Amino acid sequence: MIKQSLAALSAAIIIGAAAWTPSASAAPASGDPTFDGTIYDTLVDRFFNGTPANDQDADPADPDAFSGGDFAGLIKKRDYIQSMGFTAVSIGPIFSTDTYDGHGVLDYGSIEDRFGTEKELSGLISEFHKQNMDIYADFPVGQVSAHHVWTTDHEDWAVRNPDGTVSWNIEKPEVREALIGAAVSFVKKTGVDGLRLTRFGEGDAAFLNELIRAVKAEKKDLLVFSDEPSGAEFDLSYNTGENAILKQVFSEMDPNSSVLEGIEPTDPPSLLFFDTLEGDRFTAEMVEKRMFPPTRWKVAATALFTLPGVPIMTYGSEVAEAGTGHHGNHPNHDFKADEDLKDHIANVNELRNKSETLRTGDYELLYNEKGMIVYRRYTEDETWIIALNNTSETQRVDIPQEKVGGGDKTLRALFGSDLIRQADRGDYRIVLDRETADMFIVEEDKGLNIPYIIAAILVYTIFLLFIWQVWRRGRQRRADEAKAK
Question: In this predicted model, what pLDDT tens digit does every residue of 325-365 receive, in sequence order?
């Protein structure tokens, strides 16, 4: 009887406690040029080996060789990626290639058979679409294999690079036409949702715009972006300066965070990232500065998913991958995730997906002093306060009432247990432990939750009665045993 009462009251408390739910918002439309989702960036060969049937000469122990990752592996790990809240997956270059990273393109007209067949690629896209997730692929414009099929019949099209690769002489009309035709054909044949143009160097913006218009004519909702800064009309802006700012601020404690004032909303939206598939991993920088990567990453990930822009996270970041150099940056994913970090990424990403304000709302930096950073994302209907304590000490910040929409509000912490009310002098005081981050949703102050308090008192009282009854029965049992003797 007592156990049933406890269970019933506990259930009533859970149901009665007002849990916050972000304002409803439809998922971003597939390939919409106003894309505001989040991207998980990977390489097919390095992610997961789903079937040995296409391994051929794979050797996971050789950093220069193919490792066996394939489309089947991505399908098998779809739920793993989706569990972190990502709405799109970038799978890198998938043309026939003589390098595991796909950049040594041999033929724009065929898919690398070590990765899988065209049918398997179609299956991959279909499986991800079932979960409302998009698939993007790379189109390397330059630095392809010296053995590319075009070099056989059109040697004058190729410009030899010092690293042994070739780029295309896009000053030639026939080269431009061939590249555009190859990109359009790829989009038409595969049905990918997005195309990332890579390795075009200082590429002619006029040519890039011509290519962008052509692939969008083939698929109007195709997302087209790049991995280099460009003056071309991409749907997302690539800004290496923002990447440098994020690394500088979040790779260590007590940084000069004044540079964060350079982060602001852009049109088109900026790609936000800590890692790329080139160079050293962000975690390696933390390690070099003798920081603890999982803790650093939690603060950094909160910023990544709440600052204005479109987050793109390189595979392995959720396990704090710390590789350096070209090979170290492309490890075979072992999926030995730091569960706390992975869960934190999932939680912040889920909040972002559910809140249009966090994705596209206005942005204002409220406080920024040596690594203690507070900003707000807001619309007419919703306000968030994001606090990042990137310092070595507990910090306190007072937020003026006008920044939370006036008085009679509360700030409800999403990761902590705080419920911040307005102080007597009118401001809202946020206190945050060192190296932590939290997100606060602004709500109307409804005063004390009397039903919750009454229910809690009843549960506590019944629990004491339960303990008393157990003690009483035990005492009676001992008395009966003594009498029986």
Answer: 888 899 999 888 678 999 999 999 999 999 999 999 999 99
User: What separation in angstroms does the CA of 353 have from each of 187, 303, 375?
Assistant: 27, 15, 19
- Cα separation of 127 and 132, whole Å? 9
The answer to whether 156 touches 169, Cβ cutoff 8 Å, is yes
CATH top-level class of 27-357: alpha beta
Pairing mode of beta strands 383-389, 395-399: unpaired
Q: Give the pLDDT confidence score for residue 11 in this predicted structure.
A: 38
Residues 433-444 have pLDDT tens digits of 999 999 999 998
Query: Which tokens sit at 61?
Result: 């122990």
Amino acid identity, position 33 = P
Domain locations in the chain as residue ranges: 27-357
What is the model's pTM?
Answer: 0.85
Tell me the longest C-alpha to C-alpha distance in the chain: 109
Rg for the chain, CA atoms, rounded: 27
User: Are 89 and 30 contacting, i.e. CB atoms less than 8 angstroms apart?
Assistant: no
- DSSP characters for 328-353? HTSPPP-----HHHHHHHHHHHHHHH
